[in-house]
Amino acid sequence: MLSFSATFVPLDNYLIDCGATSNTSVGNRNFAADSLYKKILSTQRDVLANTPSKSITSSADSPLYQTARIFTESSKYTFSINQKGRHSNLATNVSSVRAVKYIDGGPTENTAPPTVYGTLTEMNSNSDPRSNFNVTWQFDVDPGFQYLVRLHFCDIVSKNLNELYFNAYVNSYLAAKDLDLSILSNNVLGAPYYKDLVTASTESNKIRVSVGPSPVNSDYPNAILNGLEIMKMKAAAISTSDSNSNKKVALIVGVVLGTVCAVALAGFFFVFCRRRRLVRQGQSKTWIPLSINDGTSHTMGSKYSNGTTLSAASNFGYRIPFAAVQEATNNFDESWVIGIGGFGKVYKGELNDGTKVAVKRGNPRSQQGFAEFRTEIEMLSQFRHRHLVSLIGYCDEKNEMILIYEYMEKGTLKSHLYGSGLPSLSWKERLEICIGSARGLHYLHTGYAKAVIHRDVKSANILLDENLMAKVADFGLSKTGPEIDQTHVSTAVKGSFGYLDPEYFRRQQLTEKSDVYSFGVVLYEVLCARPVIDPTLPREMVNLAEWAMKWQKKGQLEQIIDPTLAGKIRPDSLRKFGETAEKCLADFGVDRPSMGDVLWNLEYALQLQEAVVQGDPEENSTNMIGELSPQINNFNHDGVDDLSGVSMSRVFSQLVKSEGR
Predict the structure, then answer these.
(1) Which residues take part in binding ATP (predicted)?
(2) Mean pLDDT in residue range 451-455
(3) pLDDT value, residue 420
(4) Of 191, 208, 473, 566, whose CA is between 20 and 30 Å from 331?
(5) Which residue has the higher pLDDT, 89 or 336?
């Protein structure tokens, strides 16, 4: 083994002719036969091959190409290095890596595809072990909202387990300390992992995400990030201003007011006169019937200056004067607040005739306020159903956005499941509530020529009256479904995190099956009595839908039910309920049942619980979704309304045949 340079002779210079039995000279370079140097070659089994020189043509006539060594098992060449220098380990110079390994119980390709987990940005401090810096990303966001930040990690750079330790930061707060992806991914290199965090925007309306080194591994500090998701959460606006910004705002407002004072006075008189004319014109405006009791009208009287007559059970929904709303809510007494949402506060109220109402007052700072206000009026003015909350009236005076509904004595379904200390619901009560909610959604999907998609189905939007009868509420995000010749509606993604249909989120294509997915999450929420997203729990339990589906697929759903229901649910009823929820949460909308099918199977689960069905429950409970869908399609608009006053058991008994199907 000889070097060939006349001007520079490196100490370590190896030229090897693989498979040769004698040294080979090419120009002024001498290649050593590897068979003569046993100390550099380690192999147990190989084959030597050679080719006659006459078969080598063109530029490949070098004697180097006449011999070869064919390895039939793992082998290696070992070279001693006498002088440390710029030697490169070729094993690290990989141009394309396909090392992502999705494991059971971890993220799937639906969480993020291999193109996300197979690429990354790393700190890479190999050139300087003393490096100590963070890699930071910065994003502009809207002020006053909370955001869910999902960080995606996959260690495709380490050669061994437990080599990579790093920290993650969100808005300069330590979000994850000494992250060891080896432990978090069950000691599998290249296994994906993600971490969810909730944060608010900073004063500069930014969200900053950083990764940086951990002191645990100080030899060669490193940090990685494969992907990042930021989702704006639907919640009431959060004030982020401080005293300094308040002073600036006050100064600006003062200057502006002083400048335009004269113009404002003139504009005030103009608007005042025009408003009075509009109010007089609006007194005769009516909406489609909104009766909640189907009874005789009881008037409040005409004590208000505009002379509008109001009624809790009138045949029409009126524009209600602001003064009447103030009186009904004791001038929006804060002690009368019964709920707060993205649209605004909800007050308990009472009309002059003694009828209790719920008054939703829009927040003028709500970005979706006017659109939701208009949508709610347009939608609820069309609907009349036992399981949909009724709209009594609205008020748009003085730039207000106020909606007046029938009052639901027992509040939200969510408050009866967790977090409020209310008595626990029985299994039968929960099934009846789910059935009532399903009937309301089924009516939305099928009651008119074009389906209406709720888009925000969740336990907080299912209200209960004094008899625990369920009614679907909050139609501010609702949207009419596709035309007959279309399969979906293309629209921006809206909804509540944890209930959102992943297919709708990915493709921005809305169908009724998006409501079905959200309702499937509600079903598991009813069964387990816990929040759909709980960041305080271990990672595998944070998302209720994913966690429940794992237990459902293992056939052990009884392990995670509400402890107050333990031993009180018949196994066949629980099995049918779990199967129904599982089908609702199918990855693709075409694989999910319709709300009519869901309704039928929930009815069946109730019958199994009450042991009314004749014959073998196991036999009767098989594949009901697929078999019973034609029966549901036979319901027409009038039929649904006619059955709304009949008990669930009577409706079911009319449809099930004792001899089976």
Answers:
(1) 360
(2) 87
(3) 85
(4) 473
(5) 336
Instruction: Catalytic residue, from 17, 396, 456, 572: name it.
Output: 456
Q: Are strands 356-362 and 344-350 parallel, antiparallel or unpaired?
A: antiparallel
- Nearest residue to 305 via CA among 406, 397, 402, 373: 397
Angle at alpha carbon of residue 199, lines to 196 and 202, rounded to 5° = 145
Amino acid at 204: S
61 tagged catalytic: no
Model's pTM, two decimal places?
A: 0.49
Predicted confidence at residue 574, as pLDDT, reads 96
| CATH class as words, domain 286-406 | alpha beta
According to DSSP, residue 299 is labeled B
Report the C-alpha gap between 378 and 364 in whole angstroms: 20
Q: Which CATH architecture has domain 114-232?
A: Sandwich (2.60)
The reply to whether CATH 1.10.10.10 applies to domain 411-655 is no
- Where does the chain hold its CATH 2.60.120 domain(s)? 114-232
Residue at 527: amino acid letter: L
Confidence of residue 525 (pLDDT cuts 50, 70, 90): very high
Q: What is the mean pLDDT of the segment spanning 5-21?
A: 71
559 CB contacts (<8 Å, ≥6 apart)?
551
Binding site as annotated, residues for ATP: 360
CA-based nearest residue to 329, from 348, 355, 310, 304: 348
Report whether 464 contacts 432 (CB < 8 A).
no
Considering the chain, tell me which residue range(s) the CATH 3.30.200.20 domain(s) occupy.
286-406
